[in-house]
Amino acid sequence: MSNAISGPQRPTSSAALLAATALLCSTATSALARPAESLPTVTVDPARPRAAKPRPTANHPAHETRAPAARPAEPAARQDTAPAAASRTLPARTAFDRALSASDSAALVGDLPGGAAWGAGGVSSLPAINGMGADRLQVAINSMLISPACPNEMNPPLSFVNPAMVAKMRAYLGIGPVSVGGDYIGGRIDVTTAPPAFAATDGWVSSTRLSSFFRSNGNGYGVDATATVANRDTSVTYTGGWVRSGNYKAGDGSTVKSTLYETQNHAISISKQSFGNLFTFQVGGQFIPYQGYVNQYMDMVYNRGLFANGRYEGAFDWGTLEASAFVHQIRHTMGFIAPDKVSDMPMDTKGLDGGYAIKATIPVASADLLRVGNELAMNRLDDWWNPVAGSMMMGPNSFININGGQRNRVGTFVEWERRWDRQWTSIIGLRNDVVWMNTGNVAGYNAMMYGADATAFNAADRARTDVHLDGSALVRYEPDALSQFELGFARKTRSPNLYERYAWSTNAMAMQMIGWFGDGNGYVGNLDLKPEKAHTVSFTAGWHDPAQKLWDIKVTPYASYVQDYIDVDRCGTATCLASNPANLTTNTGFVFLQFANHDATLVGVNVEGRVTVWDDLSYGHGQIRGLIGYVRGRRTDGVDLYHMMPINAKLALDHHLRGWTNSIELQLVGAKDVVNQVRNELTTPSYALVNLRTGYEWQHVRVDLGVDNLFNRTYTLPLGGADLVDYKTVSMMGSSPAYGYSVKGPGRSLNARLSVSF
User: Fold this and answer.
1) CA dihedral angle for residue 399, residue 400, residue 401, residue 405, rounded to 10 degrees
2) What angle do CA 584, 295, 638 make, to 5 degrees?
3) Would the pTM count as exceeding 0.85?
4) Residue 520 has pLDDT above 60, yes or no
């Protein structure tokens, strides 16, 4: 079987960031005096309940057309599980707007305070918040927890939804309450697709939105669709989409190879409400026939996901009950997409996730809420590489990378929320999780090259049990109608994933197949890894107008001390040194690494704000919004952490006038000159990008146009990793990726979308 497939080939800074800060702070004090209906990139959760959103008017049209007789579900009264500063929400409108430019749902995280994305495939970036990315964030899609089913994590959870499918993305930052979840130390992201909507009158009603889009850079095109049919107590919703793109071009006109992709995601939900109870059942799936990876040695040549989940919300005399259960299956294959990568080396993975979660919220007094809950998450993984005919290195047997890997977790929590008076609110919780891990015997392609490692691994005791004891405490103080302050502390624990513990071979080729870091280095697991434990403190100071509609600004400094942070050391085994004699000392080139525990600290600050600058009948409504983020991560032995986003800012001016919506956005990214020395991480220069977007909605039709990277700047991605495809070194042994080249970002792209609602 050949895994080379042919895919379609479609075609500064520090001063600027200080100026951005000054502009954001100064404009907040000169707000005009009329409530705003804006087009923000981020909708911040309110500090206190707001009035219902006003109905659309001629000057402030709704972004999406819905069936006028439909109304959203009214489940049991649910209590917010976090004060405002501890979470942020991206609504459906923001996700739909961003879908004009990209089909990668992880890119939405860049619109959150401290948010960024590690570069990967075109629809498979890994999200990061406040310097913690990949597995340190927990992502739930409609309550489903999806584990890595690839040694390169090519199928992360957010790749299973297109941006236009997202009805709500809620991110709990580093101080998320214990009721949100366990087994993570960064943040938690909850994504909801296709929430139920029921008819407000007798009979059945329906609503549909169809969209088709085109992006010039990469010749990307696709469709998105959402359709609902409902009566008073039953709702059926379909949501899904398909997209295809070729390799994109950088600002200098060069083609960035292995950046093509094609994907489709689909889901159908059936909901029923009755006497304060809401039941939802959902099934769906994904199919990716190919997805290139410029920062990996392999590409994705097949990925199929199937899932089913059920959710329940109910109101009782004693309180409310929420329950969910799911199962999610992945079948995945890595190979090579010609002509950018040409070889034959099939790598297959089969993963299965399942579990449940149950939470009860009990009002124990007029000012007190008690939350208790329990959850189960199970993961099964098989990872094997079939032999290559005629190859001495990759034959004659199959390479068994993970054999029947198991990772099971049971978690229990209790949480107390109290509103002491009008000014003070607190949430305090304790949580316990137990993680059990194990895997079966392994084997290499042959005994000569892989036998010693396999024998040692099989003789070891591989069963591990980790006990997590976590807690969180948040207190919010609102002294008046113009300000709010929040202080939070959390201890959170994460156990290693199956690859971090059980990847076993120190053969050079096998190590280069492991790793989701996009750096070109090789990795091997470590049976002795301990869980990483983060102690995080965060303080948020916020100011706003009394109605919380004209302007607001928040400043959030934070710090984390992570005990047993799972990082890497240089591999010093005889096999590693035979492959690279200078592996322990070299400060250039690709190296071989082993996962290892180190203590580390992360400190940073996020600034966010918005201000209405005009609002009248003649000129519409205008608003300035902005984000500024800085993070620094370092091990206690002085080594800087990998993939820390340099100082960055986003400033935008949004405008509404009747059916028109317009936006101009400036993105500023500082130079990345603090890098991880162990991985020989590459530095990147600073850059600035300008993006434009305009749209017009008339009755049931909407047209959107946009330009990304207006001035066609050439730049390199600070979290994009190493380019392993476009630059080669040639020797007597053939060609291999050249060290020292970062991945270039996309050049100018002209984007268009037509949407029809009925």
Assistant:
1) 170
2) 40
3) yes
4) yes
